[in-house]
Design goal:
The complex is a heterodimer of chains A (114) and B (111).
Chain A (H helix, E strand, L loop, with lengths): L3 E4 L2 E4 L5 E7 L6 E7 L6 E7 L5 E2 L8 E7 L2 E6 L8 E10 L2 E4 L3 E5 L1
Chain B lengths: L1 E4 L3 E5 L4 E9 L5 E6 L6 E6 L3 E5 L2 E6 L4 E6 L8 E8 L7 E3 L3 E6 L1
Parallel strand pairs in B: 2-11
Antiparallel strand pairs in B: 1-3, 3-8, 4-5, 4-9, 6-7, 7-8, 9-10, 9-11
Classes of the chains: A mainly beta (114), B mainly beta (111).
């Protein structure tokens, strides 16, 4: 199946700093990628839909100025958590579809803000 | 709106069969997905149903009834490694739209 690579897998940062997470589709072009967040023992919650060449679409309650999304190419989307705070500590996962019937996920990024 | 329900936890013994149910009420529907997720890892794709009926894939089968807004995932010959969270997800109106996830069912397989 298609491969989605996410980097880094783990990151620890200081409160107030910014962290960038990359999501790459390795063997297919993804015009649309999705960013999810998952808190412990909870389900995946969609944060935003990343569209190549245009602005991302954010879900209600997600601050677009805090979670900056850039989808500059058909194989790369980035999520930058700006001015991170401890409550932003979470598991962030991206996904992309190469066809309607299957969505592939990156490995996820465990963010810890101290 | 989107509403997807599945049991929070289930337990079963090794070698047994378990059925995980999922009911959904969504504004759009373009397929139902099942994912397996081990703790701290990303979800992995198990199955996709868009038409009514049963899809079988090895030890895993998935069933869909669109008129009832109902699906189940059937796991046979359970193994210890099957202990994980199983997520039911519904695709939106278009083929490349996002997925809405249920809260997941934590399955614990005991010896």
């Amino acid at each position: 199946g298609a491969v989605v690579s996410q980097h880094p897998s783990r990151v620890i940062c200081k409160s107030g700093t910014s962290v960038k997470i990359e999501c790459r589709s390795l063997d297919f072009q993804a015009t649309t990628m999705f960013w999810y967040r998952q808190f412990p023992k909870q389900s995946l919650m969609l944060m935003a839909t990343s569209n190549e060449g245009s602005k991302a679409t954010y879900e209600q309650g997600v601050e677009k100025d805090k979670f900056l999304i850039n989808h500059a190419s058909l194989t790369l989307s980035t999520l930058t958590v700006t001015s991170a705070h401890p409550e932003d500590s979470s598991f962030y996962i991206c996904s992309a579809k190469d066809r309607p019937t299957e969505a592939f996920f990156g490995q996820g990024t465990r963010l810890t803000v101290v | 709106g989107q509403n997807i329900d599945q049991p929070t936890e289930m337990t079963a013994t090794e070698g047994a069969i378990v059925q995980i149910n999922c009911t959904y009420q969504t504004s759009g529907f373009n397929g139902l997905f099942w994912y397996q997720q081990h703790a701290g890892e990303a979800p992995t794709f198990l199955s996709y149903n868009v038409l009514d009926g049963l899809e079988e894939k090895g030890r895993f089968s998935s069933f869909l009834s669109r008129s009832k807004g109902y699906s189940y995932l059937l796991l046979k010959e359970l193994q210890m490694k099957d202990s994980a969270s199983y997520l039911c997800a519904v695709g939106g109106n278009s083929g490349y739209s996002t997925l809405t996830f249920g809260k997941g069912t934590m399955l614990l397989v005991s010896p």
